[in-house]
Amino acid sequence: MPTFVVKTFGCQFNELYSASVIEMLERAGYEQSRTLDRVSLVVINTCAVREKAQEKAFSFLGEAATAVDASRIIFMGCSATLDQERAKRIAGHEVHIIPGSAGIEEVLARVQAIAACAPAEPMVPHSLFPTADIELVRGCESYCTYCIVPRARGRESAADAEVVLRQAKDSIQHGFRELLLLGQNINRYHWSGGGLIELLSALDRLDGEFWFWFLSPHPAYFQRAEVQRLMQLEHVEHHVHLPLQSGSDGILKRMNRRYSMADYDALAGAVRSDSRWTLTTDIIVGFPGETDEDFEATVAAVRRHQFDGVFLAKYSDRPGTPASAMPDKVPQKTIDERHSVLLQVVRDLSLQSNAAMVGGSVDVLVLTAGASGDTFGKSRDGRNVWFEDQGRLSHPVGSFVRVDINHGSREGLYGICST
Ligand code: 5AD
Ligand code: SF4
Questions:
Q1: What residue owns the CA closest to ligand 2's atom 2?
Q2: How confident is the model at residue 371 (pLDDT cuts 50, 70, 90)?
């Protein structure tokens, strides 16, 4: 039986595309292999958002090239758009390159041709049970000055609303319990019925027991009234991930984020008006020109909003982006220092947020059921939850349960199932 390895770096989009590739290869009779040894096909799905992620992808490509012939390797995703020559230098000219601008249909068709497998029907991109990922907006044209995504993924396009609603309906009927809608800047979604919020309202009217969530909204394209409408929906999860990036108006401007701290505060305030909702964010420290005052403004904003979770990144210079050509680069040592100061604040906030849940109970969607009795899931407000299942797997993946919380750590909540 032919075998394959799929190695995925980066974001939820890559996870979705990889899951679809895996599904297709398995349906075509391929078997997933744990090692590169004598494998028939290696698919490397790459990221380029930070230098580290890109280097990891090229390093794995090097590893794959020593184990198998280049003609058996597919190098896809953002690094595959940006540095094809390097990929060929590392693996040889025979390596197959699928750029990050290729949509899922093109990716599946190319992989199918390379793997010489029969077309699989229907080719609906699905993801890991119980979560069905659905792509709403492909590409990005927001041009934040630090970001490589617009170059790596290309022009923006919105999925057909009818197709999205059908995919959502099918997924729920197949037993999927969470719909995860994706777009680099998902607020750019538009269709004949309006924008994102109208589509979410239409999804909300579908029958069945399910939650939905979406990634990532962009503060500049999100209205306070839309957040309020979102919070009224029946099936929506109670958390918003709203990337702030910096708490300094000057830096936000240089980042081309198109919102001020006051705009952000208004949106965040809407989310915070309901204490059941959580708010998480992305922050970059060390953007070119970031002064001590700018950094302090970011720390102050993080404290003010008491984020329940923060994805904290050190600024990574991406050749070809406008920020890369900016003067006043922050020295690496300062970036490292600021990162560790803010990391401490962020960690304390996560702990505080989770500790405050102790003594209460939360609704949880079971994501993995461990035979050892440890079951893992996601609370409706987006937290990790681990609970005891008495080793009987009485709560299978995809069930909704209620968990009484007796402990909270930085990583999540721990408790006992009460349903
Ligand atoms: N350096 C550091 N972080 C970055 N991100 C995007 N580009 C860069 C970069 N050049 C972060 C942003 C974004 C997240 C997905 O990755 O915070 O929201
Ligand atoms: Fe990059 Fe900004 Fe687009 Fe997000 S919205 S993918 S940070 S350019």
A1: 144
A2: low
